[in-house]
Amino acid sequence: MTRIFTPADFGIFGTYTSLLGIFLVISAFAYEKAIPMEKDRDNVRHIVLLSIGISLVWFLSGLILYVVTGWSVFRWMDVSVSYAVPILFGLGVFAASIQQTLSYWAIRNNQYGPISVAKISQSGVNGVAQISLAGAITKTGVGLITGDLLGRMAGSMNLFVRFVKEEGLSWQRGKWLLLIKKYRNFPLLGTPSLLLNNIAIQLPTLLFVVLFGVAASGQFSLTQRMVGIPIATITTAVGQVFYGKASELQRENTERLKKLYWKLTSRLFLIFLLPMGLFAMVSPMLFTWLFGASWEMAGVYAQILTPMFFVQLVVLPVSQILYVTGNQGLQLLWDSSRFLLLLAGFFLIYHFQWGMTVAVLFFSITMTVSYTLLVLLGNWGMKRKDTIYADQME
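^ that's the sequence the OP posted. Answer follows.
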């Protein structure tokens, strides 16, 4: 695809995926994270439908606002896109939210196979559609975005059909109100924390578009796509299993939870240390050979970001430990601190005109240090006695 699409295409697509990642975390007010923690199956179904309902309201509100006023988040960022892109974006967030919610439902039921099938469906449709649409849709970024949307729709429908067959769609408004109250810490503390977390991750892509243009940002976006997405796939898969098991152990055996936490992180450290070290040495040459001379800077950025990628492989699978142990306040503090540090750093880099390479280096160092700190905070959080399970439904 790097020989079909231009760096500008990848720049627009990178903006789309970054914004999607940010809006995804608020699409259901974080209620989906409560699904694996709920014991009652009927309550689980209600939380799933609640999450999907909130996402639907978000989508319809955004669509009406755009059609009536023409306002969109792309216009707010002063990024010029086709008229269809904001509509595709809204559909993409809605489809991704359904898939995310139902993935937590599958985790709760220890059905990891369906999650894999949904991911494979998403990736397969995504890749075929993006290549097929390259010649049919010539507007910048629209082909890549449309392919991504079709992939997310395929993944979400795969899980939704299974959910309907097993659980049905019946609901009671009174039970929704009780569940909203029981898990109120998720929207009150979890949503701001998740929002800051994802903004911190997506901030470079969005700022690079504004400060350095879509072509330069496209180089960074390719690095994120070719390295960041495979890492996200690995860490999400391992993290989903850990989240389900950790939720169970937090209720039953906290000592085993601590052992599992450190056993997993130490093994991931040993597994990925050598491969990531080798990748750091060859990435500039590798990117040029694979994608062409015009993508040389993407390889340089990959080399600079290797420490961050390595720490992500180790930490991200266990990064939700503070949610499992009911320490949403501590998670919010960590996310807020990292976000403010990144924002201040990027402002100084832009003010002194140090350039995009320095900005990428700063991002890599900040993220590496912050993830290392998160591991230590997770260990401290497991020692605390107060958890979300102390809040019982009335």
